[in-house]
Amino acid sequence: MSADHPTANQANQAPVATPTLAMIRTLGLVSAICGLIIVGAYQGTYDAVAANKRIAMERAVFKVVPAAKSIEEYYALAGGSIAKAGAETPAGAAKFFAAYDDVGKLVGVAAEGGAKGYADTVRIMFGYEPACQCIKGIGVVSMRETPGIGDKIITDKEFQANFKELDARLNAEMAALANEIKTVKHGTKASNWQIDAISGATITSRAVGKAINDTAQALLPRLVPNLDKIGSKS
Amino acid sequence: MTTVATAKNWDEFMEGIWKQNPVFVMILGMCPTLAVTVSAVNALSMGVATAFVLVASCGLVSMMRNITPKEVRIAVYIVIIATFVTAVDYAIQAISLALYDALGAFIQLIVVNCIILGRAEAHAAKNPPLPAMINAAGMGVGFTIGLLALGVVREILGAGTLFGVSLFGAHFQPWVIMVLPPGGFFVLGSWLLLFSWHARRKQAREVPQNA
Description:
The complex is a heterodimer of chains A (234) and B (211). Chain A has 234 residues and is of the alpha+beta class. Chain A contains five helices and nine strands, in the order ααββββββααβββα.
């Protein structure tokens, strides 16, 4: 076995250097084989992964808009109009989900947002109810916050109570929120557009507030004037 | 001849499961062992993913062994291992996103799992593909058993469930520390204690016979 074994031979005759060409040949061959395997795996799983991600997203929407029976994806375009989501995301567009009840009437809108938390970006989904112009219910899409501290944003009942009816009215010009949604220190919540932080998990609480505010500021001025266009299921 | 070969293959396979068990004997791969074994399902999936990467990469390393110059061997191993880890990563995303989130970064970290690099360097690079893959399969199964041994105990004690099925009913008060990081050390320590106690008893039994 050792006769045709270059590795073993060279180990015994230390000074003999391997030709550079042999190294390049082997590395090239390995890279080519590995490249093919990776592309094959990516192509083979692409549809299943996309379907899984869509199901996970739909579940998150149903959680924040409990009355929903079906959902449709839309883009709020940079120019102020809205369009049905297609294969490509237009530049500057904000994605949102319109949720309909079983007779096809709009019951709410869900949108995803993210902000830097303690460990990594906290991505949340929130439900917006056009009738009260308020945010009702949030869910976490992904986060890596400390278990037992940062992840209280899901379990803490007092924190979740912030999102029973969080004020998200637009100002008179319909250009921005009338009141910026903001996370305030635990126990100092005074208005309906403020979020009372969890004591000990302030950074994660702030990330939730910032994620909601950033997304709402970008989405709602484009969405609210166009609500009648998505008022019933197409 | 065939029976001799089969017996040898069997020995090669059993090596990783008992005599050289990566978790309980070699104490290798402790990072995923302690981190993902909070439930039996996580432990099983991590074990299967690692076993697949082990077998596939050892097979390829072994096939390439005659044309791999020693100067670039580590680079070759890492590229091969990383490839199969990427494939497993996609496969798990396709199977279940919840599982993918639960295993987190530890799937990608299989690349630097010392069991796999160790097998590639110590065994696959010196043996033909079949024995290399059999040995790798044994190690993979051994690792999975090790993870399951931790995962099952931690899930039963820490959550009162096994593979998600409730065992004790509503009155069970979960021993939460078992699913937190310290629980991993407790359970691993207990298993090691058990194995070393067993080894000592075996030794004590054998000595009088030899004397």
